[in-house]
Amino acid sequence: MTTATSRRSDRRISPVFVGIVAVMAVTGWATWTGFAEQPGLAVFLFVTSAWIVSLCLHEYAHARTALHSGDISIGAKGYLTLNPLKYTHALLSIVLPVVFVIMGGIGLPGGAVFIERNRIQGRWKHSLISASGPLTNVLFAAVCTAPFWLGVTDGVPAAFLFALAFLAMLQVTAAILNFLPVPGLDGYGVIEPWLSYKIRRQVEPLAPFGLLLVFAVLWIPAVNGVFWDVIDAFMRGLGIEDQLSDCGYWLYRFWREDSDVCLTGP
């Protein structure tokens, strides 16, 4: 009886996650209705909480796929509760991604759940576990952009549209960055099972620095320009022009004097 109760508690949604979802819902409502005196503050809280929710779902997808692939230790680690405080690297998975959104308006992928890969048999299963996280970002982006590509934005408040566009852009950048075949990112995790043992051993020491390498390369102006051109192309394909996500970012940074320029005009 104790074991059964424990297993149920391993999968019970955490109050921490419920609280984050509640903040997202309330501030989303405040953004939609214009209830907040400062729309930028409401957008900031809405996008930040929604971004954290997406990070939790990203890691949950990894954990859930690993569980069904054979790693039965996942539940005991608390990964199925959607509680970000249970992650192995909360700094890398929650704090830094939020900081990067605030500083640069870019969705930073992170790694949090520790999966016991030795429990999992089959290369396809390993690849699917790695792919499930960024695929969650793809799904989140599709949901955020649905009003745009369905053509149902008439009557939707501008501040809410800007917030959705910016949130979608974060999901797109997170998915693209995470699918890069760079050690330490999920894209490499997808192809790693298919590499030879010799190559995996040679590449393994680079994994802790993979994300740093990506952002160092993105500092190169030419590379940065190409990266954002790709992001803009994806966003246009989803029905969102780049000025909409730009307005969302400006509104998100409510502490700047020009944050509401898209709402008030020049």
Describe the structure.
By secondary structure, the chain is mostly helical. It contains twelve helices and no strands. The protein has helices at 2-10, 15-33, 39-69, 90-104, 123-149, 158-178, 186-191, 197-203, 210-218, 221-237, 242-252, 261-264. The longest helix has 31 residues, at 39-69. The chain starts with a helix and ends with a helix. Mean pLDDT is 88; it is low at 1-6. It is a multi-pass membrane protein. Its cofactor is Zn(2+). Keywords: Cell membrane, Hydrolase, Membrane, Metal-binding, Metalloprotease, Protease, Transmembrane, Transmembrane helix, Zinc. One of its GO terms (biological process) is proteolysis.
In short:
The chain has 266 residues and is an all-alpha fold. The chain contains twelve helices and no strands.
Largest sheet: none
Principal-axes geometry comes out as globular
Q: Uncertain segments of ≥5 residues (pLDDT<50)? A: 1-6
Radius of gyration: 19 Å
Query: How many DSSP H or I helices?
Result: 12
Order of helices and strands: HHHHHHHHHHHH
For the termini, the CA-CA separation is 66 Å
State the share of residues found in helices, binned by percent: 55-70%
Taking all residues together, what is the mean pLDDT?
88
Secondary-structure content class: mainly alpha
> What is the total tally of β strands?
0
Estimate the strand proportion: under 5%
Cofactor: Zn(2+)
Protein name: Site-2 protease family protein
Subcellular location: Cell membrane
InterPro entries: Metallopeptidase_M50B, Rip2-like
